[in-house]
Amino acid sequence: MRLKGKVALITGGARGIGKAIAVVFAREGADVVIADVNLGLALQAASEIESLGRKALALELDVTDYTKVEEGVNKILDKLGKVDILVNNAGITKDNLLLRMSQAEWNAVINVNLKGTFNCIKAVSRPMVKQRSGKIISIASIIGLMGNWGQANYAASKAGIIALTKTVAKELASRNINANCVAPGFIQTDMTAKLADEVKRKMMEAIPMAKLGTPEDVANVCLFLASEESGYITGQTLTVDGGMVMV
Ligand code: NAP
After folding, report:
1. The CATH number of the domain where 118 resides is what?
2. What is the span of the domain harbouring residue 189?
3. Does residue 246 belong to any structural domain of this protein?
4. pLDDT higher than threshold 90 for residue 199
5. Which residues are catalytic?
6. Between the CA atoms of 237, 221, 229 and 161, what dihedral angle is there, to the nearest 10 degrees?
7. How far, in Å, are 100, 197, 244 from residue 150 at the CA level?
8. Residue 110 DSSP symbol
9. Residue 223 needs a FRET pair 20 to 30 A away by CA distance; which of 7, 30, 130, 238 works?
10. How far apart are CA 233 and CA 231, in angstroms?
11. What is the mean pLDDT of the segment spanning 147-154?
12. What burial class does residue 65 get, using C-beta atoms within 10 Å of its C-beta: 0-12 exposed, 13-18 middle, 19+ buried?
């Protein structure tokens, strides 16, 4: 098992990609903390993890609130003793064309996606520095690499996560902490289910593999980045997009 004895904190882990990451990590031996605004679903996900024979903790947590994030990390240290892996997965969209985008739509997306990621990295970095090891994985998006109509807020938040990750990678490398991003393309989740048919048709034309990815496709790359196999990789962004963006 590739994550035996490790403790992983996954934000937004109650459903979608985050839940798939939680299950894949648990199957590989990790104890898992599901931190999500939706406590009911987080508890369900945690009991699924327990049924795989691992310890699990469900935390009701809004990543935009630094004080609550710090309290959450302290609770994990208290109950599970350490945090080896952080996956910044919580994310939202509030799409609108730039000319129509409100201050509220801009602020909400930047707050959850970018500030939330900063908050969680900051809160785990002290214990990780102390234990001289850690893996920080942030879920960006190919939209953060290429931009997209109607997604100025989302694209900026995801590009910000990529730049933040490069900085964290540089600052914490000497403490044996790796920080990397995974940039999914279009993945079958509730987030993409609500896209208009016309958008989906256009999207399919732009994907060389001509199919959507699965949450497990993303989870497997996170597993690699969380494991010792990726020990010499830091500050990178791995795309999981069926060949949509090739840099
Ligand atoms: P999802 O199905 O909407 O799940 C996101 C989870 O995050 C939900 O459980 C949500 O809770 C939770 N969440 C939202 N705001 C939060 C906050 N402030 N604090 C803590 N948890 C919060 O999304 P997904 O499709 O799995 O996407 C997961 C990540 O992958 C996101 O960062 C997204 O941007 C990224 N991504 C997704 C795709 C895709 O095609 N799906 C592509 C590229 C990148 P609620 O129940 O309240 O919503």
Report:
1. 3.40.50.720
2. 7-240
3. no
4. no
5. 154
6. 30
7. 9, 16, 19
8. I
9. 130
10. 6
11. 96
12. middle
Element (H, E) at 27: helix 16-27
* Amino acid 247: pLDDT: 84
Closest residue by CA, ligand 1 atom 7:
12
> How far, in Å, is the centroid of ligand 1 from the Cα of 93?
8
The token duo for 151 is 């997604």
- Residues pairing with 59 in the sheet: 35
Looking at the 3D structure of the chain, how many domains does it have? 1
Identify the H or E element spanning 38.
Answer: none
In terms of Cβ atoms closer than 10 Å to its own Cβ (0-12, 13-18, 19+), residue 31 is buried
Q: Which residues approach ligand 1 with their CB closer than 6 A?
A: 11-12, 14-18, 36-38, 61-64, 89-92, 112, 116, 139, 141, 184, 186-187, 189-192
Ligand 1, atom nearest to 154 Cα: 34
What is the tens place of the pLDDT at every residue in 127-139?
999 999 999 999 9
